[in-house]
Amino acid sequence: MMKKLLLTLVLLVALVGMAQAELIFSDDFESYSEGATPDWYNPKGDVTVAIDDGSVFESENQYVHINDPGTQTTVLREHLWYHVGTDYPSNTFATLSFDINEPDDNGGASFYVKLTDGTGSNWLNPSSASVSFLNGSISANGQTASYSLDMPHHIDIVVNMTGASGSYSGTTLQSYRYDVWVDGQLVFANVDFDGAATQILGINFATASTGSQLMNLDNVEFRDEIFVGEDPRAASNPDPASLQEDVPLTKALSWEAGIDPDTGNYVDVSEYHVYIASILDINELADPNLLVTYPANIISDVVAETGSNGGSWTPPAGLLARDNIYAWRVDEKLTDGTILTGANWGFSTVLSIPDLNAALPEDAVVGVGEDAELTVEATNPFTGDSSGLSYQWMYSADGVTYSPVGTNSPVMAITDAQVADQGYYYCDVTIDSNSETVSSKIALLVVKQALAHWTMDQDDFVNGQYVDIVGTYSTEPNSAPTFVTGAGPDEPALGAAVINPDSFAAIGTWNPLESTGQMTISAWLKWDGTIGEYGNDILSKGDGWGADIMMWAFKVRGVSGGNAGVWFYSQPDYGIRVSGLLPEQVWTHICLAFDSGQARLYADGELVATRNNFALGTDTESSLKLGGGAAFPGAMDEVMIHNYAMSADDVAALYYETSQEALCLYPPSIDLNDDCRVDLTDFAVLAQNWLECGMVPTCLP
């Protein structure tokens, strides 16, 4: 049922888009700088883009201001020329739409709108100069109507070149005729034009050669179908918004009154009529006559409360049903008796499926042997709570193939977690009464582990390889290193490796991020004071410099104040670049934690830099190297890669393992002697300073 309804909604959106016709050309003038001339064919005269402060078209946007002093034959002339039969329509319907605002200090020349057939002739109106605007009067082939000055107006010119009459929006348009709509109202019907021309090849906005003329123009659109903008006087701003989903069955429907284009105020409404229908055929919503042509489908026709600014109506209990799409409309009866028909709006009601907390389950990171819980929260729409629901958890080691796991519970409990428990989990939640099922988001359970650990001790350099003491990534350098005393008080005399020049160790194409998307790289480094032109690798994954041949590089690079910097970056991303971290000939612990695009760099257990939204290179099959870029300049010790992004506490603990130095990450607020604890010494400091005063000029007794 749910899949069918969602498909219906997708088709419904597509239908509404089709009802608006295909847009061939448009220009809202937003792409130009202020004062520029639009990049149309052969613009002439003072035609410049202006910025609206909201006083011209009642919105902050850009428009074209046309200022004709009466010296140009054509101020704005735009023709969009294409080959016949390609972009511009022939033997069909077409609509030219635009917005205008004529200032009240206008001159005596008309502003013309012309459509041409490519021969240079204006054929919309064979007896005069097409549709014209002057001092609040619109004219077409001898017909005239009025509009307000200093107010925005929307114009639609619908042309029929089909050779046969056609009906739309309650009117019939004869062949080789055109209709003119102003603000959603038909003002000129079936205006004659030259039937010998059957294809539109040019659009022209122009002013006359005599007299001056001011006009503002915006939102020019040309379609190969019928399109008529909504009447601004009709009811607007529906709540729920059109095509809104999951509307409660008790939702009150509300709307705003339309706007009178002559005054800019709400229209005077005496009463509202609300129509609502269950949509049985998705094509019905696109039919402007839906709630008139098919009264058998109308559920309710009521008069709602009135108000100068709008109204509301609450459907009676039981009227709306789950899993349905509804069309509704509000007609306004004005105080002068005029009925303004509203547009069709649509919404879908809440579905008969479980309502899940979209944020759950959350990812979890646990150590080996620790317990973990993944949780979902779901509500049965029929009961309003979690009763009547069943749960089935699913597990996948690779995120591709899933199998059932766990019990019928909103909680997936993993006790004594092991590496085999690591992977991807989600939960299928089912309503027992109708078997409708919804799947939760997928969560990743990471079981903390070291993926690789190279001690760099001489004792762990066996058969010409650095032995990986926790994994399968033992690796052979290009040449044998020399060994020196390692970092930390307990490191053996030959517990660190000095990598020879031009030597590195290739570890194959292994991608440490593959299983979890997270990693932590850590190493003790003793920099010897030299540096390569492009830095030297601690660890890197790449076969060169390019987004498609690398993933990341973790380097010593850049010297500042006599200390070396540490960089973590990729070809597509600047990454983290911190100067002055490595003093010469001093052991320093460097740690890089990465998770979901966030990289954090630590030095001697303390956070020194963070980069969010870090972009990796894309070559997951590129080479992983230990050392490189002319080899690491100095000694390396305890190089490790973990499968998770370590927290600050984790990094501090890792630093302590070798250094035997504890870090004060969370100093107590009343630690008065800065030893990261509160004891009698702090009390003695407090007593010694008791009643001391630091106020100026004096303390009160």
What count of helical segments does DSSP give?
A: 4
> What Rg do the Cα atoms give?
37 Å
**Overall geometric form:** elongated
Q: How would you classify the helix and strand content by structural class?
A: mainly beta
The low-confidence runs, each spanning 5 or more residues with pLDDT under 50, are 1-21, 75-86
User: In whole angstroms, how far apart are the ends?
Assistant: 79 Å
Largest sheet: 8 strands, antiparallel
Q: Per DSSP, what share of the residues sits in E-state strands of 2 or more residues?
A: 35-45%
Strand runs, count: 50
- Helical content band: under 10%
Mean pLDDT across every amino acid position: 84
Structure explained in plain terms:
Helix content is 6%, strand content 40%. The chain has 701 residues and is mostly beta strands. The strands form eleven sheets. Strands 1, 2, 3, 4, 9, 12, 13 and 15 form an eight-stranded antiparallel beta sheet that branches. Strands 35, 38, 39, 41, 46, 47, 48 and 50 form an eight-stranded antiparallel beta sheet that branches. Mean pLDDT is 84; it is low at 1-21 and 75-86.
Provide keyphrases for this structure:
701 residues, mainly beta, eight-stranded antiparallel beta sheet, 4 helices, 50 strands, 40% strand, elongated, disordered N terminus
Quickly describe the structure.
This protein has 701 residues and is mainly beta.
SSE order and pairing:
Layout: H1 2-19, E1 23-27, E2 46-51, E3 62-68, E4 93-101, E5 111-116, E6 131-134, E7 137-140, E8 143-146, E9 153-160, E10 166-168, E11 171-173, E12 177-182, E13 185-192, E14 202-207, E15 213-223, E16 236-239, E17 244-247, E18 253-256, E19 269-278, H2 290-293, E20 298-304, E21 310-313, E22 325-334, E23 339-340, E24 345-349, E25 355-356, E26 364-367, E27 372-375, E28 378-379, E29 389-396, E30 403-405, E31 411-414, E32 423-431, E33 437-439, E34 443-448, E35 450-454, E36 461-462, E37 465-466, E38 482-484, E39 496-498, E40 505-506, E41 518-527, E42 536-542, E43 550-560, E44 563-570, E45 573-582, E46 587-595, E47 598-603, E48 606-611, E49 624-626, E50 634-642, H3 648-659, H4 680-688
Parallel strand pairs: 17-24, 26-34
Antiparallel strand pairs: 1-15, 2-3, 3-15, 4-9, 4-15, 5-6, 5-14, 6-7, 7-8, 9-12, 10-11, 12-13, 16-18, 18-21, 19-20, 19-22, 22-23, 22-24, 25-28, 27-31, 29-30, 29-32, 32-33, 32-34, 35-50, 36-37, 38-39, 39-50, 40-49, 41-46, 41-50, 42-43, 42-49, 43-44, 44-45, 46-47, 47-48
